[in-house]
Every structure is written in C-alpha cells, then in structure tokens.
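Customer escalation, tier 2.

The customer says the design service returned an amino acid string that "doesn't look like it belongs to this structure." They asked us to rerun it and document both sides in this ticket. The original structure tokens are below, unchanged.
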C-alpha cells in the first residue's frame, strides 16, 4: 500500500523559511515523478513544483520559482520542499503527490492523473 506522509507545516512570519517533508513508502519510486501541490482556502488546488525521482530534474510554478526548492533523499525515500522568503499568499495546505512514468513538467499539466496523494500539511504565513 502506497503512503505519502507530509510533515513540517506550521505558522511562520513573512520572510521566514520552512522545509516540508514527504515520506514515501509502499513501493519503489524510482520511476516516479514526485510533486508538491497546494490549496488555499476557497481556491482550487494548484501546482507548486515537481522532481523526477531518478535524475533529479525539477520544474516549478512561476509563483515560487527562485524561492522554493525540491529535493529527494533516496536513502530515506523522502521528498523535501524547501520554502524560503515565504509570503502570506503562500498560505495553504501543501500536498505531496506521485505519478509514475512521467516528467516533473507533466505533473503540472496533468494534475488529474496523479496516482497518489498525501493528506497534506498546513502552512500559514502571517504578514
């Protein structure tokens, strides 16, 4: 059974940094792309960024490019989202996602084809 478990959310101030983790278990993820999505109150879920588990190529939404970085720790089967210079508009529930046989860029274009989702972790950025 595949499980994606996010952690690391919390309340921070604008300008602060936070690192989210996504612990993946249940299968080998070497053929997967791993993505981060977020959903703010009253808004639709949106793409944040993604990484190919093998090779490490990354792709980011314009709104976070230059501030957020995605990385993996293969030994721990964990994906990280390092968020720097956080803004109040980054406030949202952040979800980890996995999809097989795709690229990091395709995670944005085909959110409906994500195979596995985590339950999310809340990030609140105060001004």
């Amino acid at each position: 059974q595949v499980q994606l478990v996010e952690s690391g959310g919390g309340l921070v101030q604008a300008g602060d940094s936070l690192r989210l983790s996504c612990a993946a278990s249940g299968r080998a993820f070497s053929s997967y792309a791993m993505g981060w999505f977020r959903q703010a109150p009253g808004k639709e879920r949106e793409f944040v960024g993604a990484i190919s588990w093998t090779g490490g190529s990354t792709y980011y939404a314009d709104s976070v490019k230059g501030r957020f970085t995605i990385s993996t720790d293969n030994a721990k089967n964990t994906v990280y989202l390092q968020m720097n210079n956080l803004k109040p508009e980054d406030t949202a529930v952040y979800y980890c996602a996995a999809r097989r046989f795709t690229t990091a860029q395709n995670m944005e274009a085909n959110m409906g084809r994500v195979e596995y989702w985590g339950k999310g972790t809340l990030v609140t950025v105060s001004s």
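Tier 2 assessment: The sequence is consistent with the input. The first strand starts at residue 3 and ends at 7. The mean pLDDT is 95. Sent an explanation to the customer and offered a walkthrough call.
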